[in-house]
Amino acid sequence: MKKIVALSALSLAVLSVSAHAAPETYQIDPTHTFPNFQISHLGFSVQQGRFDKTAGTIVIDRAKGAGSINVTIETASIDTGLPKLEEHLRGADFFNVEKFPTMTFKADKLKFNGEQLVSADGNLTLLGVTRPVTLTVDGFHCGTNPLNKKAACGASVSTTIKRSEFGMSTYVPAVGDEVKITIPVEAYLQ
């Protein structure tokens, strides 16, 4: 009897490991992924906004501690709660959405601490300029969504960039050059 229990436990362990042995592809959930930004306004306050349309995939190979990220953000989906400001931000002084309708982040260097994804090194392309960016990943968690019963992963991702390095220098330094970006992200296994 003890041998049967031990073999059953071993079989479950092998199945559990093999379930995570292959790369898994997750589709970003656009209803729970909203890139946010914070920027200094004349040194008096920190203004915030977000982008409402995000798509992409995340590939995770926990056994190898590897993977990739491919995210596209529609720049015209900028949302500050102020329509006149949004109109200005969509124009040539800032995001120039007619010429550059998207910004992208692509990474193939993911860093893990055990099975926990902790950072991603990749390239951000904004206004046609591509520069290296490291994303810090906090609260990485995978499991089954209790509402829809689908396998999902989520985290809070953050970085800070200098917008002038991407050619967005209007009003620098009065309107801050450093932009803090935080992205709550959820993605479903495909």
| Named CATH topology | Lipocalin
What is the number of beta strands?
11
Question: CATH superfamily, called what?
Answer: Lipid/polyisoprenoid-binding, YceI-like
The string of secondary-structure elements, in order, is: HEEEEEEHEEEEE
Question: Helix content range of the residues, please?
Answer: 10-25%
Fraction of residues in β-strands: over 45%
Radius of gyration: 20 Å
Side-by-side strand order of the widest sheet = 1-4-5-7-8-9-10-11
Structure write-up:
The structure is a single chain. With 190 residues, the protein is mainly β. It has one domain (22-189): Lipid/polyisoprenoid-binding, YceI-like (Lipocalin). Helices cover 14% and strands 54% of the residues. The protein has 2 helices and 11 strands, in the order H-E-E-E-E-E-E-H-E-E-E-E-E. Strands 1-4-5-7-8-9-10-11 form an 8-stranded antiparallel beta barrel. The longest helix has 18 residues, at 2-19. Residues 2-18 have low confidence and may be disordered.
